[in-house]
Specification:
mainly alpha; two-stranded parallel ribbon; 7 helices; 78% helix; 3% strand; ABC transporter permease; transmembrane helix
Protein backbone atom coordinates (compact mmCIF):
# COMPACT_ATOMS: atom_id res chain seq x y z
CA UNK A 1 0.00 0.00 0.00
CA UNK A 2 2.74 2.59 0.73
CA UNK A 3 3.98 2.10 -2.84
CA UNK A 4 0.55 3.08 -4.16
CA UNK A 5 0.42 6.38 -2.28
CA UNK A 6 2.68 8.36 -4.68
CA UNK A 7 0.64 7.10 -7.63
CA UNK A 8 -2.68 7.97 -5.99
CA UNK A 9 -1.38 11.37 -4.93
CA UNK A 10 -0.16 12.21 -8.43
CA UNK A 11 -3.38 10.90 -9.95
CA UNK A 12 -5.46 13.01 -7.55
CA UNK A 13 -3.44 16.13 -8.31
CA UNK A 14 -3.69 15.48 -12.03
CA UNK A 15 -7.46 14.97 -12.04
CA UNK A 16 -8.50 17.50 -9.38
CA UNK A 17 -8.43 20.62 -11.53
CA UNK A 18 -10.20 19.07 -14.51
CA UNK A 19 -12.86 17.61 -12.20
CA UNK A 20 -13.55 20.96 -10.53
CA UNK A 21 -13.57 22.79 -13.88
CA UNK A 22 -15.93 20.25 -15.46
CA UNK A 23 -18.47 20.38 -12.65
CA UNK A 24 -18.22 24.16 -12.40
CA UNK A 25 -19.05 24.49 -16.11
CA UNK A 26 -21.87 21.93 -15.95
CA UNK A 27 -23.44 23.60 -12.91
CA UNK A 28 -23.03 27.09 -14.43
CA UNK A 29 -24.72 25.99 -17.66
CA UNK A 30 -27.51 24.33 -15.67
CA UNK A 31 -28.08 27.42 -13.52
CA UNK A 32 -28.19 29.59 -16.65
CA UNK A 33 -30.66 27.20 -18.30
CA UNK A 34 -32.78 27.21 -15.15
CA UNK A 35 -32.86 31.02 -15.01
CA UNK A 36 -33.81 31.17 -18.69
CA UNK A 37 -36.58 28.61 -18.08
CA UNK A 38 -37.96 30.84 -15.31
CA UNK A 39 -37.79 34.01 -17.38
CA UNK A 40 -38.93 32.51 -20.71
CA UNK A 41 -42.04 30.39 -20.04
CA UNK A 42 -42.66 29.54 -23.70
CA UNK A 43 -39.35 27.71 -24.19
CA UNK A 44 -38.22 24.34 -22.83
CA UNK A 45 -34.64 23.96 -21.62
CA UNK A 46 -32.70 20.79 -20.87
CA UNK A 47 -29.27 19.56 -19.81
CA UNK A 48 -27.86 16.10 -20.73
CA UNK A 49 -25.94 15.69 -17.50
CA UNK A 50 -25.18 11.97 -17.71
CA UNK A 51 -23.79 12.18 -21.25
CA UNK A 52 -21.62 15.12 -20.20
CA UNK A 53 -20.19 13.00 -17.38
CA UNK A 54 -19.63 10.06 -19.74
CA UNK A 55 -17.68 12.33 -22.13
CA UNK A 56 -15.62 13.70 -19.25
CA UNK A 57 -14.74 10.20 -18.01
CA UNK A 58 -13.85 9.07 -21.54
CA UNK A 59 -11.47 11.98 -22.05
CA UNK A 60 -9.96 11.53 -18.58
CA UNK A 61 -9.38 7.85 -19.28
CA UNK A 62 -7.71 8.52 -22.61
CA UNK A 63 -5.31 11.06 -21.08
CA UNK A 64 -4.62 9.03 -17.93
CA UNK A 65 -1.42 7.21 -18.96
CA UNK A 66 0.00 10.12 -20.95
CA UNK A 67 -0.41 12.51 -18.00
CA UNK A 68 0.90 10.26 -15.23
CA UNK A 69 3.16 7.41 -16.44
CA UNK A 70 6.25 9.49 -17.40
CA UNK A 71 6.29 11.18 -13.99
CA UNK A 72 5.80 7.92 -12.09
CA UNK A 73 8.62 6.18 -13.96
CA UNK A 74 10.80 9.20 -13.25
CA UNK A 75 10.11 8.64 -9.53
CA UNK A 76 11.44 5.05 -9.80
CA UNK A 77 8.06 3.51 -9.01
CA UNK A 78 7.44 0.14 -10.66
CA UNK A 79 4.89 -0.26 -13.41
CA UNK A 80 3.15 -2.89 -11.27
CA UNK A 81 2.47 -0.40 -8.48
CA UNK A 82 1.60 2.27 -11.04
CA UNK A 83 -0.97 -0.06 -12.59
CA UNK A 84 -2.73 -0.84 -9.32
CA UNK A 85 -2.55 2.80 -8.34
CA UNK A 86 -4.38 3.95 -11.46
CA UNK A 87 -6.92 1.12 -11.14
CA UNK A 88 -7.77 2.21 -7.59
CA UNK A 89 -7.68 5.89 -8.59
CA UNK A 90 -9.91 5.24 -11.60
CA UNK A 91 -12.47 3.41 -9.48
CA UNK A 92 -12.45 6.31 -7.04
CA UNK A 93 -12.98 8.86 -9.82
CA UNK A 94 -15.85 6.90 -11.37
CA UNK A 95 -17.58 6.39 -8.02
CA UNK A 96 -17.15 10.08 -7.14
CA UNK A 97 -18.53 11.09 -10.55
CA UNK A 98 -21.58 8.83 -10.12
CA UNK A 99 -22.23 10.26 -6.64
CA UNK A 100 -21.81 13.84 -7.90
CA UNK A 101 -24.16 13.13 -10.81
CA UNK A 102 -26.82 11.70 -8.48
CA UNK A 103 -26.55 14.77 -6.24
CA UNK A 104 -26.71 17.06 -9.27
CA UNK A 105 -29.85 15.38 -10.66
CA UNK A 106 -31.53 15.39 -7.24
CA UNK A 107 -30.77 19.07 -6.61
CA UNK A 108 -31.89 20.44 -9.98
CA UNK A 109 -34.89 18.11 -10.03
CA UNK A 110 -35.88 19.49 -6.62
CA UNK A 111 -35.45 23.07 -7.86
CA UNK A 112 -37.63 22.33 -10.89
CA UNK A 113 -40.41 20.95 -8.67
CA UNK A 114 -40.21 23.88 -6.26
CA UNK A 115 -40.57 26.40 -9.08
CA UNK A 116 -43.09 24.24 -10.96
CA UNK A 117 -40.77 23.94 -13.97
CA UNK A 118 -40.75 20.16 -14.40
CA UNK A 119 -42.27 20.49 -17.87
CA UNK A 120 -39.93 23.31 -19.03
CA UNK A 121 -36.58 22.46 -17.42
CA UNK A 122 -35.36 18.91 -17.95
CA UNK A 123 -32.23 17.26 -16.59
CA UNK A 124 -31.65 14.18 -18.71
CA UNK A 125 -30.80 11.00 -16.82
CA UNK A 126 -31.47 7.27 -17.00
CA UNK A 127 -34.97 6.71 -15.63
CA UNK A 128 -35.66 3.26 -14.22
CA UNK A 129 -36.54 1.74 -10.87
CA UNK A 130 -35.43 -1.78 -11.75
CA UNK A 131 -32.86 -1.90 -8.94
CA UNK A 132 -34.62 -2.35 -5.57
CA UNK A 133 -37.57 -0.27 -6.91
CA UNK A 134 -35.50 2.86 -6.39
CA UNK A 135 -35.03 5.29 -9.30
CA UNK A 136 -32.05 7.14 -7.81
CA UNK A 137 -30.26 3.94 -6.82
CA UNK A 138 -30.82 2.47 -10.28
CA UNK A 139 -29.53 5.65 -11.92
CA UNK A 140 -26.45 5.63 -9.69
CA UNK A 141 -25.72 1.96 -10.45
CA UNK A 142 -26.05 2.38 -14.21
CA UNK A 143 -24.01 5.58 -14.28
CA UNK A 144 -21.35 3.79 -12.24
CA UNK A 145 -20.99 0.77 -14.53
CA UNK A 146 -21.30 2.77 -17.78
CA UNK A 147 -18.77 5.30 -16.51
CA UNK A 148 -16.39 2.52 -15.52
CA UNK A 149 -16.78 0.87 -18.92
CA UNK A 150 -16.06 4.10 -20.81
CA UNK A 151 -13.14 5.05 -18.57
CA UNK A 152 -11.51 1.62 -18.93
CA UNK A 153 -12.13 1.51 -22.70
CA UNK A 154 -10.64 4.93 -23.38
CA UNK A 155 -7.95 4.33 -20.76
CA UNK A 156 -6.83 1.29 -22.74
CA UNK A 157 -7.03 3.28 -25.99
CA UNK A 158 -4.94 6.07 -24.47
CA UNK A 159 -2.34 3.61 -23.18
CA UNK A 160 -2.13 1.93 -26.60
CA UNK A 161 -1.69 5.32 -28.23
CA UNK A 162 0.99 6.28 -25.72
CA UNK A 163 3.02 3.12 -26.33
CA UNK A 164 2.38 2.33 -30.00
CA UNK A 165 1.01 5.51 -31.58
CA UNK A 166 -2.01 5.60 -33.91
CA UNK A 167 -1.53 2.15 -35.45
CA UNK A 168 -3.51 0.04 -32.91
CA UNK A 169 -6.31 2.62 -32.72
CA UNK A 170 -6.69 2.77 -36.49
CA UNK A 171 -6.56 -1.03 -36.62
CA UNK A 172 -9.34 -1.24 -34.03
CA UNK A 173 -11.48 1.17 -36.08
CA UNK A 174 -10.95 -0.89 -39.25
CA UNK A 175 -11.80 -4.14 -37.44
CA UNK A 176 -14.94 -2.59 -35.95
CA UNK A 177 -16.06 -1.34 -39.38
CA UNK A 178 -15.45 -4.82 -40.81
CA UNK A 179 -17.62 -6.35 -38.09
CA UNK A 180 -20.42 -3.86 -38.77
CA UNK A 181 -20.31 -4.31 -42.55
CA UNK A 182 -19.92 -8.12 -42.70
CA UNK A 183 -23.22 -10.00 -42.18
CA UNK A 184 -21.84 -13.16 -40.54
CA UNK A 185 -19.72 -11.06 -38.16
CA UNK A 186 -22.55 -8.63 -37.48
CA UNK A 187 -25.02 -11.37 -36.53
CA UNK A 188 -23.49 -12.14 -33.08
CA UNK A 189 -23.45 -8.42 -32.34
CA UNK A 190 -27.15 -8.16 -33.19
CA UNK A 191 -27.91 -11.11 -30.89
CA UNK A 192 -25.93 -9.40 -28.14
CA UNK A 193 -28.05 -6.24 -28.49
CA UNK A 194 -31.21 -8.33 -28.45
CA UNK A 195 -30.03 -10.01 -25.25
CA UNK A 196 -29.28 -6.63 -23.66
CA UNK A 197 -32.77 -5.27 -24.39
CA UNK A 198 -34.46 -8.26 -22.76
CA UNK A 199 -33.49 -6.86 -19.35
CA UNK A 200 -31.58 -3.62 -19.99
CA UNK A 201 -30.58 -2.68 -16.45
CA UNK A 202 -29.13 -6.00 -15.32
CA UNK A 203 -27.70 -6.98 -18.71
CA UNK A 204 -26.07 -3.60 -19.33
CA UNK A 205 -24.56 -3.80 -15.86
CA UNK A 206 -23.21 -7.31 -16.45
CA UNK A 207 -21.83 -6.42 -19.89
CA UNK A 208 -20.19 -3.17 -18.77
CA UNK A 209 -18.61 -4.77 -15.70
CA UNK A 210 -17.28 -7.72 -17.70
CA UNK A 211 -15.81 -5.48 -20.40
CA UNK A 212 -14.32 -3.16 -17.77
CA UNK A 213 -12.48 -6.06 -16.16
CA UNK A 214 -11.23 -7.13 -19.59
CA UNK A 215 -10.07 -3.63 -20.53
CA UNK A 216 -8.30 -3.06 -17.20
CA UNK A 217 -6.62 -6.45 -17.53
CA UNK A 218 -5.46 -5.66 -21.06
CA UNK A 219 -4.22 -2.28 -19.85
CA UNK A 220 -1.56 -4.04 -17.78
CA UNK A 221 -0.31 -5.90 -20.85
CA UNK A 222 0.10 -2.57 -22.65
CA UNK A 223 1.86 -0.55 -19.94
CA UNK A 224 4.06 -3.23 -18.38
CA UNK A 225 6.80 -2.53 -20.93
CA UNK A 226 5.97 1.09 -21.69
CA UNK A 227 8.85 3.53 -21.55
CA UNK A 228 9.05 7.02 -20.15
CA UNK A 229 8.74 8.45 -23.68
CA UNK A 230 5.53 8.14 -25.75
CA UNK A 231 5.67 6.49 -29.18
CA UNK A 232 4.52 9.67 -30.94
CA UNK A 233 7.19 11.89 -29.39
CA UNK A 234 8.64 14.27 -31.92
Amino acid sequence: MPNLKPVLKLYMLDIKHSYVIFWSILCAVSVLSFVLAVSMPDITFGVSSNFAVYIYLSISGFLMVKETLPYILGMNITRYHYYWGIVVGSLGLVVLSAISLSAYVWFFGLLARWFDLSDRFNVTFIMSNAFMDNEMLTMFSLDLVIGLFLFSLFGLAGAAYYRFGWIPLMTAVVVWMAVIMTPFLRAPLIRLFEWVFVDPVSHISMLCLSLSVFFFGTLWLVIRRATIHPANRQ
